[in-house]
Amino acid sequence: MKAGMVLKIPELSILEAQSSKGYEVKVDKSKNILTVYYNSKVVRKFSVGTGKDQSLTPEGSFKIVNKVEKPWYNPENIRGGAPENPLGSHWLGLNVPGTNGFIYGIHGTNNPSSIGNYVSLGCIRMHNADVKWLYDTLPLQTPVHIFSS
């Protein structure tokens, strides 16, 4: 390179796309904290709500297998986007064995005061703005590790 030449560096998004490690999520049920990693570095941490009973939120390694904006709450036939919908604004389904990604997931809530508590039937609840960030940021097949420390 000679003096006066311009060095062009590719946009960050190009560098991120070439990464071999990528995103990973860890959920610590004992602290109700969800941590997002990129290439093994912490990107963001979120307070979450998990199962009323420790056994309700499954532990193990899973992947995000579907993403739904304005998910319907089928048990009570509540349409997506309705204020009374307990799933909030977005759903990221996990491939817990035997569920096809539609039983356990990471989702928003219509009850923001529940975040940080043990309140769900097994899913991981987040503030709607936080789950939207996950929805927009994490690709399908992102690993999700759920554990109690």
UniProtKB/TrEMBL annotation:
* Active site residues according to the UniProt entry: H107, C123
User: Know the name of this protein?
Assistant: L,D-TPase catalytic domain-containing protein
Task: Tell me its family.
Answer: Belongs to the YkuD family.
Query: Which keywords does the record carry?
Result: Cell shape, Cell wall biogenesis/degradation, Hydrolase, Peptidoglycan synthesis, Transferase
In terms of superkingdom, the source organism counts as Bacteria
Question: Could you state one GO biological process linked to this protein?
Answer: regulation of cell shape
Pfam families xrefs: YkuD
Q: What's the source species for this entry?
A: Anaerobacillus arseniciselenatis
Annotated PANTHER family:
L,D-TRANSPEPTIDASE, L,D-TRANSPEPTIDASE YQJB-RELATED
Please give the pathway this protein is involved in.
Glycan biosynthesis; Cell wall biogenesis; peptidoglycan biosynthesis
Mention any one GO cellular component term assigned to this protein in its UniProt record.
extracellular region
| Sequence ranges assigned to domain L,D-TPase catalytic in this UniProt record | 23-147
GO MF terms here are: peptidoglycan L,D-transpeptidase activity; transferase activity
